[in-house]
Predict the structure.
Amino acid sequence: MLFLGAKNVLLAATVVVSLYAFASAAQPGLFNEPDRPQFHYTAERNWLNDPNGLVFFQGEWHLFHQYNPQSVESDNKSWAHAVSRDLVHWEHLPLAIRYGDSIEIWSGSAVVDVANTSGLGTKDNPPLVAIYTGAGHGKQTQNLAHSTDRGRTWTKFAGNPVIDENLKEFRDPKVCWHAPTKRWVMVVALSEERKVRFYSSPDLKKWTQSSEFGGQGNVEGAWECPDLFPLTLAGKTYWILVVNVGWGGPAGGGSAAQYFIGDFDGITFRNGNPKDLALWTNHGPDSYAEQTWSDVPASDGRRISMGWMSSTRYCTLEPTLPWRGALTLPRELSLVQTKSGARLAQLPVRELSRLRAAALSESDFATAGQTLEINATLDRAMSSSFAVCAGDRTQTVIGYDAATQQVYVDRTKSHPGAPFHKDFQARYAAPLISHKDADIPLRIFVDRTSVEVFADDGLSVLSVNTFPDPAALRFEPPASGVKSLRLWRLNSIWKTKD
Ligand code: FRU
């Protein structure tokens, strides 16, 4: 006869209770919910916005991002953390930098302090240093945190804040090492004044203001999340200053990222284009707070960026649970000479082709599904259009209008039921700017709740959230105007958690 003493009964009961608690805490099918992107980055649960602290270190692509550890509301901003070895598959790591003492941890960047200028590590074990905005007590200041264990644990700097100008709207420091002047350079936004300010430092701790740049390009909305980096074209180095604009831009007034092309000498940025010219990285509504990776080894040599895939208009209303917010695909940046001058081109990183599963043929189109890569060549002289995620109730149309020379994404019929925001049902267009006579190369990524379109060798880009009916699986090719067409179903980057 089995006899359990009182202590053992208690133990058995505890095991049963905790097993039950574990089972009920886990969501069935987490990461395979019908509206979960399968190869765009999302957090397991809760709120996410801007990518932060993008830095490559010892074989790992580090990704931090704005995160609320408590809920899907835009609150309690902290830095969450993930790493990847291939820019495609991401491993979620514990929270890196937590809000506290009435100060939220807002956006910023991270660098490898190779020569240990900060003294926060050693020469043999250089520290990773995060530079972020502390928002609280009625002002925004710039602060440091560091890690000496490959980003696994972080310590806030005892001497924080490192820049305090007693300003209310002063945020999003992006730091880089400026080799010619042997100084750290920071670009940070004075959001309401529509300008950025440059600082320099020998050690990441003491900062001196060097100059300001502003009032140019688009000034409709708050200037946020600046970035500054060099790119070369035909042997010449240009400096790119990216400024994200909170309300304004080409997608009907949501949020967007503009860029300036010019020159930077370590002190001053000079715009090489007319003052009023606004250039945009993306003509879709859902790419914001774009940032590029720091410390990519010279042997790789790429400049890679990622953005937050949402719009300030409806980010708090997006109908996904238990998470809210996704990041764009990582894109490789380059400069291309067009008839109007040098322009930024963006293409999805090559590593994404590892996700290609079955190549689809015409007989598969009716059940193509919602995770697709489509590569096509379009006739520049003829209009054409595709429908993806097409079904009885919804479809998203991606097309080219030869008369206006624009590529577009039409999401007026993408989402079933009542729109969760009045501006959601819309059509977004990107002009073709290469002015080539050749056929138009087009790459499209469909990932359940969104589409990203890279046309004309990455000179015209649209990132658009769609939230379709999960039962809408059909792909409809254009009736004409397509010279070549290839389709793949893409594998998921996630392991489903039960
Ligand atoms: C951009 C932004 C940043 C700020 C962060 C707060 O989306 O407003 O300017 O640092 O989000 O989460």
